Design the sequence.
């Protein structure tokens, strides 16, 4: 639902200029790197719950974990208040509680952990739950779990999922409850959707299942989340509907038109609509429980960050969210001021390297990256930033020096890959170095692109590049597989439409037509 989104955190908003420096803590786990001002015990519980959630979703979906990587974790900034998140998002409504951005260069999420309206998740609950007991607003943790469910789904999306099910699945997972004994409850009622389901302007069920949303109202589009959750929950737990959802997805994978597949597998849609209304009004609903004994992960590492890291943290949060070109110079100046006071601090120097790169100060970016690498020779993030600065210098260099600089950049990405072989960033940038130079990528570079895409399927641009490379090699099956997450991203817009058009041509065995669909989309966008 990508209410998890993007923009800027005013430095003053989190007290960076306050007289006393707030203490920041760092939680490091297998899948997450969390920065927070929470007390260590609360931060540990938060990190453990997220790891349990990751394991529970994988357990229920029968998903293998990706190879673990320090560089391919989600970085989470746990901020004090919803207002901090809203400033970063650029939200004026007061509604946004958290957001997420997926990228091969480092997925990032922001959540307000101090929201007083957020009910504690760790409590003992029974085998059923009444919807009245969880009726309430959508807090930051629910949004985080919703978005992380999308993140996980992208890793396992091998067949087309319609938008209602993409969002319904994420809503189904987002209400997870963490019990005292380590058990995770999945599929609890989505209380934050009940008001809309009972009182809102609902999308007709037939329209929901048709997937044709181009002429619906904003409120009807919002109802896709609630209706998607309700239909997903019903098809999961209603005994008389057992097997229908799987058969429906199999029909979609064969190319059956969505409404036709729904009518074939769900039967009379008027009866389904009636049954859903009755299901919504049941006093109790089932949910799934995954035993804590099935959820194993390495111990969480908790520690207070350095004084320099604490000073630069608000700026790092802003930079990771994306710095606009018009703001890059001012941001670099702010980070330089912190670096002046904390020269040689690894996180400060790495942050400065990224800020200088954003501001196009390429030599300064390399120098800051080198200082970070001097502190920690295994700092692959600093290596990648250094390599990217080299790429920019190579692109600007004269013909005599160009190739050597591109080679140096590629060597830097190779060095980072040797330290963390499953970090998608150096793999993707190694391939990009050939494209930027205008040279045909080597077989190793193409393999690096495909592996990076497999490691970071949430990066749709990278995924598209992988699909195009497969098409150039006439590997239609692999190209189609790479396109599936793009084509059925509910927020993909024109990019998703282009991917679906490419898949149509691939299914017809028309490689040239699939490539032509890309060219036509690019031409249309440039007009």
Sequence:
């Amino acid at each position: 639902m990508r209410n998890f989104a993007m923009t800027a955190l005013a430095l003053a908003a989190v007290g960076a200029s306050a007289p006393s420096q707030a203490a920041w803590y760092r939680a490091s786990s297998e899948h997450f790197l969390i920065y927070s001002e929470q007390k260590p015990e609360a931060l540990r519980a938060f990190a453990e719950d997220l790891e349990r959630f990751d394991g529970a979703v994988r357990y229920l979906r029968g998903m293998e974990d990706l190879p673990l990587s320090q560089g391919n974790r989600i970085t989470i900034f746990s901020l004090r208040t919803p207002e901090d998140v809203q400033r970063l998002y650029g939200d004026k409504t007061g509604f946004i509680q958290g957001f997420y951005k997926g990228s091969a260069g480092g997925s990032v999420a922001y959540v307000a952990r101090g929201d007083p309206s957020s009910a504690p998740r760790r409590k003992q609950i029974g085998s059923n739950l009444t919807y009245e007991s969880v009726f309430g607003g959508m807090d930051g943790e629910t949004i985080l779990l919703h978005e992380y469910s999308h993140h996980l789904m992208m890793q396992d999306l091998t067949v087309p999922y319609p938008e209602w099910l993409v969002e319904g699945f994420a809503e189904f997972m987002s209400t997870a409850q963490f019990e005292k004994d380590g058990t995770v409850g999945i599929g609890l009622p989505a209380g934050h959707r009940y008001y809309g389901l009972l009182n809102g302007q609902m999308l007709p069920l037939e329209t929901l299942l048709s997937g044709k949303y181009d002429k619906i109202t904003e409120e009807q589009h919002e109802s896709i989340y609630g209706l998607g959750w309700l239909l997903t929950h019903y098809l999961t737990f209603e005994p008389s509907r057992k097997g229908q959802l799987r058969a429906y997805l199999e029909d979609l994978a064969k190319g059956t038109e969505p409404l036709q597949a729904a009518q074939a597998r769900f039967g009379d849609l008027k009866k389904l609509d009636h049954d859903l209304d009755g299901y919504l009004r049941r006093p109790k609903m089932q949910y799934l429980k995954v035993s804590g004994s099935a959820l194993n992960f390495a111990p969480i590492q908790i520690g207070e960050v350095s004084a320099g890291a604490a000073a630069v943290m608000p700026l790092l949060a802003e930079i990771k969210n994306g710095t606009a070109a018009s703001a890059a110079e001012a941001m670099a100046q702010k980070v330089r001021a912190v670096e002046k006071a904390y020269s040689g601090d690894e996180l400060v120097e790495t942050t400065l390297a990224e800020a200088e790169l954003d501001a196009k100060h390429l030599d300064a970016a390399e120098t800051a990256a080198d200082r970070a690498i001097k502190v920690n020779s295994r700092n692959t993030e600093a290596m990648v930033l250094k390599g990217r600065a080299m790429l920019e210098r190579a692109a600007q260099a004269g013909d005599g020096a160009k190739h050597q600089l591109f080679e140096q950049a590629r060597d830097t990405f190779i060095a980072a890959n040797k330290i963390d072989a499953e970090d998608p960033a150096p793999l993707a940038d190694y391939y990009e170095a050939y494209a930027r130079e205008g040279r045909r990528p080597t077989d190793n570079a193409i393999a690096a692109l495909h592996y990076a895409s497999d490691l970071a399927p949430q990066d749709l641009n990278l995924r598209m590049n992988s699909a195009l490379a497969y098409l150039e090699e006439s590997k239609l099956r692999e190209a189609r597989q790479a396109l599936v997450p793009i084509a059925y991203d509910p927020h993909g817009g024109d990019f998703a439409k282009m991917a679906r058009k490419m898949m149509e041509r691939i299914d017809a065995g028309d490689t040239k037509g699939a490539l032509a669909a890309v060219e036509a989309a690019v031409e249309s966008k440039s007009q």
